[in-house]
Specification:
Number of strands: 6
Helix content: 55-70%
Radius of gyration: 39 Å
Strand content: 5-15%
Shape: elongated
Structural class: alpha+beta
Distance between the termini: 35 Å
Number of helices: 13
Length: about 375
């Protein structure tokens, strides 16, 4: 008898011949997969979605007239530096959520080391990472998902992650605000001293020279120069605050330096009035505008230092899921049955090929007979 040629009809014939074996093997696999899928523990998936906070206009950023308004426009373009830009804020959120500090707080609060049956905290952290997924979407939202065997606990753990995020982010923001407040406090003190000195100098000059005021032409020159110089000084204050957080090499700081250079060049182009009285009036005007700007910033920093409002926007709180997340029994049974069927079809083709080779007495058939004889002469622990 010739061995099968390998045509499709030969395969069909072989499968029909071995149909009972195929059905038996597929049936056993289906039963086992159903049993296993029923034994596997059920898990639930709870999700929560958050947004970064909306940028807030700092109180008094428009103070100080047009110079203050111009400074606010520049500041608005650099809100992301303070962590208020959406992408940067979400990066901060992601770093906090993935920090060991937050994850350990979650483990300790819900006794997850016992739940995962781990001996060490490091092993528990790895197990928790497998059940937590944090996704940042292109719509600038952050989605946190938690898988747990209890639907209520799954939602509680997901919400606890967000509570920890808000608590730590609030603490970091308040700390940064305190640093800014101390810096602005020193600048306010220095500016008040400069303003007092300028006012005393102007008063002394007027008393000594019996002068009262300025001409309209000199006043216009004074206001133009004072406005621009106040803008430069306000920008320098912002630059110093930002540089404490970012460092001088940050691109935003470099752009601010370019703007400052342009403003300083414009100052040199203004008409230089040689009158001492004009210069004294201008110094008082500059220090007054700067003080108004700094006081508004200082009050805002004090408010931010003690504020206790939420720092995140929660779109969807995690709620206990009603449908299980795992195991997906239909997929387990279907996958196991399909795999078993394919394996049975492949195996029966080779079994039939071996049977035909043995019955035809070919070299391959003789080799198969020798192998089977050798196997029959062996025991589980070795040869006879």
């Amino acid at each position: 008898m010739e061995e099968p040629s390998g045509s499709f009809l030969d395969y069909i014939y072989t499968w029909l011949k071995w149909r009972r074996f195929i059905i038996w093997m597929s049936g056993i696999t289906a039963i086992l997969s159903v049993v296993i899928s029923l034994i596997l523990p059920v898990s639930y998936l709870a999700t929560t979605t958050i947004l970064p906070p909306k940028p807030e206009s700092p109180i008094g950023m428009g103070a100080g007239g047009p110079a203050g308004a111009a400074a606010f426009s520049t500041f608005a373009a650099t809100l992301d530096v303070f962590g208020l830009g959406k992408t940067e804020e979400l990066d901060t959120y992601l770093a906090i959520l993935e920090s060991r500090r937050v994850r350990e707080n979650v483990i300790q609060s819900f006794d997850l080391q016992s739940y995962y049956q781990k001996d060490t905290m490091d092993e528990t952290l790895k197990a928790l990472d497998d059940d937590v997924d944090i996704e940042m979407t292109k719509e600038n939202t952050l989605i946190l998902s938690m898988v747990y065997q209890d639907s209520v606990k799954a939602a509680e753990i997901a919400n606890f992650f967000i509570e920890e995020l808000d608590r730590i982010n609030k603490s970091l923001s308040n700390g940064q605000a305190r640093s800014n407040r101390l810096f602005l406090e020193q600048r306010v003190f220095e500016t008040r001293r400069h303003l007092t000195d300028a006012e005393e100098t102007l008063k002394t000059y007027q008393e000594e020279h019996a002068t009262i005021g300025l001409s309209e032409e000199n006043r216009a020159t004074l206001l133009a120069g004072a406005e621009l110089e106040a803008y430069v000084m306000m920008m320098e204050v912002q630059r110093d605050i930002l540089s404490k957080k970012l460092g001088r090499s940050h691109p935003t700081l470099q752009r601010m330096e370019i703007e400052l250079d342009i403003a300083r060049n414009r100052l040199t182009e203004l008409p230089q009035v040689g009158l001492a009285l004009v210069r004294l009036f201008r110094e008082v005007e500059i220090q007054t505008r700067i003080l108004a700007f700094l006081l508004a910033q200082y009050e805002q920093a004090k408010i931010q230092e003690v504020r206790d409002t939420p720092t995140i926007q929660i779109i969807d709180h995690a709620v206990p899921p009603q449908q299980k997340y795992y195991p997906k029994r239909m997929y387990i049974v279907a996958g196991a049955c399909l795999s078993s069927l394919l394996f049975s079809l492949f195996l029966t083709i080779h079994l039939e090929s071996m049977r035909q080779a043995r019955s035809s007495g070919t070299t391959r058939g003789k080799q198969i007979d020798q192998i089977l004889t050798e196997l029959q002469s062996m025991k589980l622990w070795g040869r006879k």
